[in-house]
Amino acid sequence: MLSASHQQQQVSTLEEDPVGLEDILKAQSRLQGVAHKTPVFTCSYLDKLSGCHLYFKCENLQRVGAFKFRGAYNALSFLRVSKPHITDVVTHSSGNHAQALALASKLLGLRAHIVMPNNVSAVKRSAVESYGGIVVLCEPNLPARESTAEKVVQETGGEYIPPYNHVDIIAGQATVAAELLEQVPDLDAIIAPIGGGGLVSGTCIAAKHFSSRCKVLAAEPAGADDAKRSLESGVLIPQTNPKTIADGLLTSLGDLTWAIVRRHVKQVITVRDEEIIDAMKIIFERMKLVVEPSGAVSTAACLTNEFQKLGFHKVGVIISGGNLDLNKLPWL
C-alpha cells in the first residue's frame, strides 16, 4: 500500500522516462491560477563568487513555502478525476510534503491524514494543522511511520500519496523548471537540491523537452550523499544514517526518480554543512530572502571549485523552500 503502484514499478524498468511532456503540460494546466508563478531573482555578489550569471528560481515564495505544493496539488487534482470516490488521502512526513498535501487537500475538498513523529517541532505540526491536515503522531522512526500510515489507510480507505516517488508528483515538480526556462530561456544548466529526487527528476524531464541544451546538476549534502554515490556507481545505493543540517534531503531516491536521475543528471555536487550555512547567510543578507538549509544547498554548490570548473555562463538555481524556525537559525 505504501510503495509505488505496480504500474509505476513496471514503468521504471522501461527505457522511456516514466514522465513525459504531456504529463508536464497537464500539470501546468491543473496548477494554472492555483500555484504561484514564482519570481526569478539575481544577485551580482553571488555572480562574482560563482564566476557566472545565476538566476534564482524562488520556490521559497511558493504556497506553503516550498515547491512541494506543485506536486501535491497535481497528484490530488488528478486523483479527484481518476478516483472520485476517494475522500481521504494519507502520507507520512514531517516536512514540506506534509504541509503541501494538507493545503492541496483543503483546496480540493479532501481530508488529509498526516502521520508525523511525536518529536516533530510544534512549528511544523501547527503549520500542517493550519492547512486543515489531521495529524497522527507515531514513534520517530521509519518503520513506525510506515506502519502507522498503513493503519490510517486501512481505517479511512484513503489513498497514500508519497512525497516524491510518484509520476504525478514528479510531473508537478517539473513545472518549476518548465516555468524557469520560460522566464530565462537560454540557460546552460539548472541546479537543484536532491533528496528523494522528485524535484531533480522533474527538472530533468522539463529540460529535456523545453531546452535540450540545458544540463541538469544536482546539489547534495555531503552527509547524505547517496545520490552522488549512486550516480557514480550506476547502482541505486539506499540512504543510511544521514547526518546533515539539510533535513529536507535525508531520504533515498525512489525507483522512479532514480530511473530519471541516472539517465539525465550530468553531475552531483556535494557540500558540507558549513558551506550550506554560509550560503544561507549570503541569501539572507544579500538577497533578503528567507531560505531553509535544504533550499540553500543548490546555491552552496555554485560556490564550489567543482562547479566553477564546469565553465557554465548562465545557470538557473532552484531555491526549493523557505520553511525554518527563525528561533533556531543555524549561525546563532
What does this structure look like?
This protein has 332 residues and is an alpha/beta fold. It has two domains: 15-65 and 166-328, 3-Layer(aba) Sandwich (Rossmann fold); 87-157, 3-Layer(aba) Sandwich (Rossmann fold). The protein is 46% helix and 15% strand. It has helices at 6-11, 21-31, 44-50, 68-82, 96-108, 122-130, 142-156, 167-183, 198-210, 226-233, 255-264, 273-287, 293-302, 305-308, and strands spanning 40-41, 53-58, 88-92, 111-117, 134-138, 159-160, 189-193, 215-221, 267-271, 314-319. The strands form two sheets. Strands 1-2-10-7-8-9 form a six-stranded mixed beta sheet, with helices on both faces. Strands 5-4-3-6 form a four-stranded parallel beta sheet, sandwiched between helices. α4 packs across α8 (167-183), α5 (96-108) runs parallel beside α6 (122-130) and α12 crosses α13. It starts with 5 loop residues before the first helix and ends in a 13-residue tail after the last strand. The model is unreliable at 1-14 (pLDDT under 50).
Q: How is the largest sheet built, in terms of strand order?
A: 1-2-10-7-8-9
What structural class do the secondary elements suggest? Answer: alpha/beta
What is the helix tally?
14
How many domain regions? 2
Radius of gyration: 18 Å
Helix content: 40-55%
CATH architecture of the largest domain, by name, is 3-Layer(aba) Sandwich
Beta-strand percentage range? 15-25%
Query: Mean of the pLDDT scores?
Result: 93
